[in-house]
Amino acid sequence: MDPKDLEPGIQRVGRQLAGAFPSRRGHPIKVLDERAMNLASQDAELRAALFRFVDVMPACRSLDDLATHLTGFLDEVGDQPPPISAAMKMGNTKAGRRALGAAGAAGVRHMAHRFIVGSDPVDTLATLRSLWRDGIASSVDLLGEATVTAAEADRYAARCAAALDTLSPAYAAMKPDELLERDAAGPLPRANLSVKVSALTPLLRAEAPERGQRDAAPRLRQLLRRADRLGAHLHIDMESLDSREAVLELVLELLAEPEFAAGPSSGIVLQAYLRDSPETLDHVLEWARATPREHPLVVRLVKGAYWDHEVVEARQHGWSVPVFERKADCDANFEALTRRLLEARPAVRVAIASHNLRSVSHAIACNRLLGGGDGDVELQVLRGLGDDLGHALAQSGLRVRSYCPVGDLVAGMAYLVRRLLENTANEGFLHGQAAGVPLEQLLAPPA
Amino acid sequence: MSLPPFANEPVLELRRASERAKLTAALGELELPLRVPVWIGEKWRSGDELVSTDPGAPERVVARSASATADEAADAVDAARAAFGPWAATPAAERAGALLRAAAWMRERRAQLAALVLRECAKPWAEADADVCEAIDFLEFYARGAIELAEGAALLQVPGERNELRYAPRGVCAVIAPWNFPLAIPMGMTAAALATGNTVVLKPAEQAPGCGLRVVEALRAGGVPAGAIALLPGEGEAGAALARHPDVATIAFTGSGPVGLELLRIAADVPPGARQLKRVVAEMGGKNCVIVDADADLDEAVPAILASAFGYAGQKCSAAARVLVHEAVHDVLVERLAGAVAGLQVGPAEDFASDVPPVIERAAQQRVRSYAERAAADGTLVSAQHDVPGEGWYCLPVIVGGLPADSAILRDEIFGPLLSVEPVRDVDEACDRIDALPVALTGALFARNPRTVARVVARSPVGNLYVNRSTTGAMVGRQPFGGNRLSGTGTKAGGGDYLLHFVEPRVVTENTLRHGLVV
Questions:
Q1: Is B465 left (phi over 0), alpha (psi -120 to 50) or beta?
Q2: Residues contacting B378, CB < 8 A, separation 6+
Q3: What is the 3-state secondary structure (H, E, C) of A261-327?
């Protein structure tokens, strides 16, 4: 396949998708939210203050306490715009603090509703049904505190098991949707849960990966068995590079066990921002070809959500930075990996998780050029951030899955906020789109 | 000589399997036991009066060492005194060159040196590697600092006179080093003294003569003259004889409080015929506290507290010993700490999966165990049982709560894996308790309100306060390290002003007026 042949397809798909985006006129609240997020993403100090506020909120014990924290953070914003000066004044009286605390809490809850589909799986079913009706599947992600004890790992595993028990019958009752339920490799499970290995064990150690691997294995095995019994898909998320070896080896080892050859459907994540992700893909593909499964391994390709962490950690230790530091390099790698993954079918199934219009259009066009049907590649978006893109994709007859965080609104928001900030960073597509960057530029090849 | 700016030697990226494999291979190739001499000038006396063993497998001998006599201590000082003149007259840049070559010598042997640290002191890989890196950092950092110091300091100038301030080395420096950073700390003190033109007699800890030998080898390989650095392995008496010698101008010490105070007494006693006041640079113990406020992120506080208290089995001067936690989150913190400590793996240092290695020697094991028994009697143990290897000086990691205010556990430096937890009404009460301590080395605060952070910073007496991170892991040039109160003489290893303790300022004022004319 010649890149020359691909480019016109990418442009065509990109323009078509951009045209399918819902109009914002009808959503005054969304416009307001986006304005707030833009404000935050333009002023680094303000962004830091808001980040710290959302982060500390679950630990605040009263409205007064909340307001004290909020004004404490805002105090460090150098050039205070008028609304912030007003907030600082409110912090001077008890009544003012109560009002400010209430307003802050309401603000975070309001924001949380956009990104968190419910406080527990039962709570989410209405939203998941409505997504399914719109032609969008889901993957549920359970938010929670970090796991530092075995009891916490057990609790997280129990929450995952309960989520599978809830999601599976609920999805079984939904109307058939051929596009979401089958691709060239066979049937696709409806219920889909994403889990984190760092929550399944307190023993992840970067310099001793086998330790966390060993400790997480029994809990993950139980979840795989349950998913298999319920016909659900279990996806194992990838986190920072410190745990990559443990996570990848754990999943590949368990899925190679004979009892899981026939199921469940399962998958891993490949992070395109890692410079050595092509070698990781070599390893995964080698495994996939040597380990035939009834449900091919799903590889979800993402850019990666720990960019800042990876850069800071490497800089602090004097290591070479493991991630691409230029966005265009990362985007180019994303496209190269997309193509390799699509060409590796049927040994793997492919899910492309990106909000970058160019990356998504590239995947769609590349799949078509390789002779795949539109249902043979999955496109994933993040709930709350990629909703418009998700709907545009679904309306264009493409197969979409929305990654849906579930958890306590306040505590969950603290865990989510980092991911959101990563996605509101200046270079993100959404930001570019909101800032009115011309479509040609958004669709230009990475360079 | 123009040097690139100082940068910390990068620690190994142990999350990569290939790096771990290199270290394991180096350990396999380590040839033991080492022979460690009393090494004065070109004179090399072997012996096996002193034996260091692997704390994780005590039948394994790591080094057979001579133990210096009082006469040898005197010989070493005499030799160092004889070498002082030429070394002091060597230009700072040349002395720095020797230190930089010593750094290069160590850099070429990173894995082997880490393997020796691991064997002799049961320091786990990541920390053994960091020890080697820190030794290299001290060489690089002080080499640069000494070049800068040789410029002297600017003084006010008026017409008709020329004022100059120069820093001159003080003479012979006795370096008395501990075993817990068996390369980094002796190298740090020695490098500071050498860089500024002093000559050194190094007495390494009796538990780590092998590492002491490597320090001296590195310096001599780098080109430090044989007379300028002597190796004097031995026990306490050798150190005392060294410190008492009238020709020792500076005593650089890192170790326990009682020994540090004894050295200060020795230094204060000026014998008849003495020609110089001894200066003591002492880094002693602490009773390091972690404050956890109600708004702390416990997801981060729990692992950081564990690393601070149980990393290297609590045998760092910077290790956390007490947690002072806001009563609103006390119970949940204790529950999470107890659960987390139950997951720790007690095992040999060479196993990358070990969290808590053995302590240094049998006496240490007995001391820590007796404190643990006392903790159980005075308070409530909140940690669980572990599997512990049969041989080796292992101690269980212990967390204890409910101690009475006068418990020795809250006061003594235990230097082992024992952590106490106490509820407090608020951070101010925590600050009061910390302020009541006679020692002030490190501390940590977990809090998210910037005003709370500012309040605690203003009240904290400690030499190194860490906000929202562990109390251990100070880096040269980034966290100059050292304590206040009875924790030390207030010097900061790895800091910009450390070298000033090894020199004496001399001011020269020249009248430039001749017959009313400026010449």
A1: beta
A2: B400, B403, B404, B407, B409
A3: CCCCEEEEEEECCECCHHHHHHHHHHHHHHCCCCCCEEEEEECCCCHHHHHHHHHHHCCCCCECCCH
B317 belongs to the catalytic site: yes
User: Rg of chain A's alpha carbons, rounded to an integer?
Assistant: 22
Task: Give backbone dihedrals phi and psi of B411, rounded to 5 degrees, phi first.
Answer: -120, -45
User: Which chain B residues are within 8 Å of A78, Cβ to Cβ?
Assistant: none
Hey, is B392 helix, strand or coil?
Answer: coil
User: Which of A145, A202, A208 has the CB atom closest to B340's CB atom?
Assistant: A202
Dig out the tokens for B62 from the structure: 């790591």
A/B interface, count of CB pairs below 8 Å: 89
Looking at the predicted complex, does its ipTM rise above 0.90?
yes
Buried b (16+ CB within 10 A) or exposed e, B487-504: bbbebbbbbeebbebbbe
CA distances from B411 to B307, B402, B428, B433 (A): 21, 15, 19, 11
Q: What is the pLDDT of residues A33-52, one digit of tens each?
A: 666 666 666 677 888 888 89
Tokens of A330: 């990362």
**Distance from C-alpha of B59 to C-alpha of A260, rounded to nearest angstrom:** 47
Domains and CATH numbers, chain B: 26-284+488-506 (3.40.605.10), 288-467 (3.40.309.10)
B7 part of contact set with chain A, CB < 8 Å:
yes
Does residue A366 belong to the interface with chain B, where contact is any CB pair within 8 Å? no
The tokens 């380590």 sit on which residue? B30
Nearest CB partner across the interface for B328, out of A55, A61, A241: A61
A374 touches chain B (CB under 8 A): no
pLDDT > 90 in chain B, percent: 95
pLDDT at A34: 62
Per-residue pLDDT tens over the stretch A154-172: 999 999 999 999 999 999 9
Q: Compute the Cα dihedral for B276, B277, B281, B285 and give only its sign.
A: positive
- Residues spanned by CATH 3.20.20.220 within chain A? 117-442
CATH no. for A117-442: 3.20.20.220
Residue A168 to residue A164: CA distance in whole angstroms: 6
A349 closest CA partner among A418, A299, A392, A311: A299
DSSP run (H or E) holding A19:
helix A3-20
- B300 noted as active-site residue: no
What is the rounded CA–CA span in Å between residue A56 and residue A37?
A: 19
Give the pairing of strands A136-142 and A192-195: parallel
Return d(Cα A441, Cα A432) in angstroms, integer. 9
Q: State how far residue A293 is from chain B, nearest Cα, in angstroms.
A: 28
